[in-house]
Amino acid sequence: MIDVPLSALEVAMVQTGTRAVDTLRDTTAFAQRLDTLGYHRLWYAEHHHSPAIGAFPPVVLTAHAAASTSAIRLGSGGVLAPNHAPIMLAEQFGTLAALHPDRIDLGIGRGPGTFDESTARALRRGAGPTTDDEYRDDVAATLRFLVEEVALGPLPEPWLLASSTAGAALAAELGLPLAFAHHIRPDNTLAALGHYRAHFAPSPWCASPRVLVCVETICAETQEEAARLSGPMDVVKAGLLKGHSEVPFPSPEEASAHPFTAEDRQALAAFRSQQAYGTPATVVRRLAEVADATGADELMLVTPVYALAARLRSYELVKEHAAAPSATTPQH
Fold first, then answer.
1. What crossing angle do the helices spanning 308-322 and 20-37 adopt, rounded to 10°?
2. What is the pLDDT of residue 14?
3. N or C: which end of the chain has fewer CB within 10 A?
4. Contact (Cβ atoms closer than 8 angstroms) between residue 168 and residue 195
5. Which residue from 273, 312, 224 is spatially nearest to 27, judged by alpha carbons?
6. What is the per-residue pLDDT across 275-320, written as a single tens digit (0 to 9) for each?
7. 96-128 burial: b if 16+ Cβ within 10 Å, else e
8. Given a cut of 80, is residue 323 above it in pLDDT?
9. Would you say 98 and 154 are in contact if contact means Cβ atoms under 8 Å apart?
10. Within 10 A of 242 (CB to CB), how many other CB atoms are there?
11. Which whole-number Å values give the CA distances from 96 to 152, 217, 247, in the listed order?
12. What is the dihedral of CA 104, 108, 109, 114, to 10 degrees?
């Protein structure tokens, strides 16, 4: 059983043979189904100039989903602070929170959201990578503008996203809930969370350490089907390991013919061992192990599989087999 709330991360993969507009259409059906299943929150990630991921602004997807769902919390996971003026983030998410009270989250991250340097510079109007101090100032300014300038009523719930100890340290310093990207850098998870809890400073936003852990999760009725569904993302990961950022998201059939090297397979197996793949019993057990090992207050599942039906089925199976009351009842 899983005794913490379950949430979801929408990465909006653009599948080979489809158009970005098809992916965009799927995001609505996805949000509505997760709402009826009782998932606690759904976040949208910011990406740019990728052949595999749609460049859909999280604030727009959040607004659209909020208008077509009734209970699930919605927000960014995350908006990337270096790409946006703090006052604009505050105005956008402050407005959403006023329109949809107690349902909006503002998850803030640091990365550029692209592997392409020219795209990163275009997002920042020609500026180079942000420094640690600039990032801290941007996050602090966004929080300040939420309170001092926007103040429309109910505020969005702020979170800081991190995949390293440095990011966790900033969340601790600012007294923010921490969303940790275990699905990106699992080797950093335990050290980062330990630092966060040891150095947390209470704030008006959060009285005590609060941790959400994101886990790559692919669940199917059989182990063989889960392995088949994981193939497309394995191709993308193998490309990234080789420094190839321009990797489309293939179909399972295309992925099955991909020539993985022995090194690829070893790296993918090591990563998979720290995530949750397989049958419902295997996945629920693995998610419970991650929750226990990390002390997570909440788990967020990201399921990068080809075809909306298969992705939704994965979330349905996890929810059906999680069984713990606190994991099936949203805590808004």
1. 20
2. 84
3. C
4. yes
5. 312
6. 999 999 999 999 999 999 999 999 999 999 999 999 999 999 999 9
7. bbbebeebbbbbbbbbbbbbeeebbeebbeeee
8. no
9. yes
10. 12
11. 10, 29, 34
12. 60
The answer to whether residues 6 and 34 touch, using CB atoms and an 8 Å cutoff, is: no
Residue ranges of alpha helices (H) inside the chain are: 20-37, 58-68, 86-99, 117-123, 132-145, 165-174, 189-199, 223-241, 252-256, 262-272, 280-294, 308-322, 325-328
For residue 145, give both structure tokens.
């503008």
Which token pair is 40? Answer: 């606690």
**Joined tokens for residue 272:** 């998979």
Cα 176 to Cα 76, 242, 256, 306, distances in angstroms: 15, 35, 42, 34
Beta bridge partners, 83, equal none
Q: What local confidence, expressed as pLDDT, does residue 17 receive?
A: 81
Place 331 in a pLDDT band, splitting at 50, 70 and 90.
very low
81 three-state secondary structure:
helix
- Give the alpha-carbon dihedral of 211, 52, 126, 169, to 10 degrees: 10
Q: Identity (one letter) of the amino acid at 291? A: A
Residues making up the chain, counted from first to last: 332
DSSP lists the bridge partners of residue 322 as none
DSSP readout, 229-260? HHHHHHHHHHHHHTT-----B--HHHHHT---
Classify strands 298-302 and 211-219 as parallel, antiparallel or unpaired: parallel
Tokens of 64: 């659209």
Look up residue 175 and give its DSSP letter. Answer: T
CA distances from 80 to 40, 58, 182, 241 (A): 23, 10, 18, 23
